[in-house]
Amino acid sequence: MTTFYDLGLPKKLVEKLIATGIDKPSPIQERAIPHALEGQDVMGLAQTGTGKTLAFGLPLIAKLQSYGRPPEPKTVRSLILAPTRELANQIKESLGVLVDGSHFKVGLVVGGVAINPQIKRVARGTDVLVATPGRLIDLLDRRALDLSQTDFLVLDEADQMLDMGFIHALRKIVEFLPAKRQTMLFSATMPKLMAEISGSYLNNPVRVQVAPPGKTADKVTQGVHYISKAEKTNLLIELLSKHRDEAAIVFARTKHGSDRLVKVLVKQGYEAQTVHGNKSQGQRERALKAFRNGEAMVLVATDVAARGLDIPQVRHVYNFDLPNVPENYVHRIGRTARAGMDGAAVAFCSPDETDELKAIQKVLKIEIPVLSGTPWLGMTDPSHKNKPKNTGGGGRGKGGPRRSGGGNSQRSGGGKPAGGPGGGQKRRRRPNRGRAA
Ligand code: AMP
């Protein structure tokens, strides 16, 4: 059995790690750490939950601890870029505990909070700076930061940074960095644009991979309810009521839809919280804190929260709306079954989400088991006049779900067309999509 010592990490650091309860390297750590310690660029294909933060964090800390002198004012010795504030904060926390009680400075630079305290903090010089691209550029523009002595760059969740349109920000940031540096890039998927990124920012990288992109965590039980949009809320309430004391994340597509859903859940007596892009950083942090410490059992989120969130007790993920980007499904359901626990991911598919579900199943290379209802055949075929064709609904419809916990058989069995105001969600849709009336 390989240990953290075998990977070449310093004894003190490993002892600190073991004190946090982490005593055996995960596969991505086993593969990436020795190369990173040797100074090679690394391109890691790994999803959240695999331990990738420590895969880049441990070698980074090990190398920086050997410097033996503090960083100069305004300088940053290593820069970790992450797509969301939540992920950035989480990385900072994970690495912070490993350098607790030392002079080593781990900083955080994210938007949504006052910039002046950040300017003050970075003025002293930082060993590891975790940042979201937008705020970092703000600080660079104000000359509050000096990246000319940055020896290490980490791009975490690089695919999401691209999805979020950070490509120009990345290009700009890299111009401030010295060409001679070590770069590590971690991504759950490898879209085409990544080839450009890795080609321009990495130098002959070692590729490490632990699970093919699109492969979901083995421990997540998946299922889908075919249900009309108008009935999703009732089904959600019914399913949540079966596990009131277990943490659940509900993914909605829009900010407005998330707010609406939270209101309904609160009325039903749930301590529900929401995180989405319209919330201030303070609100987002408070919501996540309440969810983390168990005060709120339900978190309604848009994809802002899909990546990186590491809350081990999450047992249920509901895809109330299916994501437009199929890879986001993988990230969403990766919020459960963490830290070796089981988890259930339940998707709701209304007729106008048929294409999204197909795309998800294509990426996953599996068919998600049907929990209730009947696949909405023909919904994208204009010759069906936008009415769902419910093939022999009897067996599925009245027969009930195939799995305990579904319980919505009568609802979905009728193949009631979706749409209508019931779902209350504004959606961006392709105009030629077949839709139920
Ligand atoms: P990440 O993929 O970096 O988001 O890590 C997911 C979770 O796994 C975090 O809670 C880590 O603390 C935990 N973790 C990371 N490495 C290990 C390990 N080698 N053994 C057990 N847990 C780990």
Helical fraction = 25-40%
Number of helices: 16
Order of helices and strands: HHEHEHEHEHEHHEHEEHEHEHEEHEHEHH
**Poorly predicted runs of 5 or more residues:** 380-437
Number of domains: 2
Distance between the termini: 60 Å
Largest sheet: 7 strands, parallel
- CATH architecture descriptor name of the largest domain: 3-Layer(aba) Sandwich
What is the residue-mean pLDDT, rounded to a whole number? 83
Which ligands does the model contain, each kind named once? adenosine monophosphate
Q: What would your notes on this structure say?
A:
The structure is a single chain. The protein is of the alpha/beta class. It has 16 helices and 14 strands. The protein has a 7-stranded parallel sheet, with helices on both faces. The chain has a 7-stranded parallel sheet with strand order 10-11-9-12-13-8-14, with helices on both faces. Helix 2 runs parallel beside helix 3 (52-65), helix 6 packs across helix 8 and helix 13 packs across helix 14 (354-364). The chain binds adenosine monophosphate. Adenosine monophosphate binds at residues 22, 24-26, 29, 48-54, 310. The site of adenosine monophosphate (AMP) has 13 residues, from helix 3.
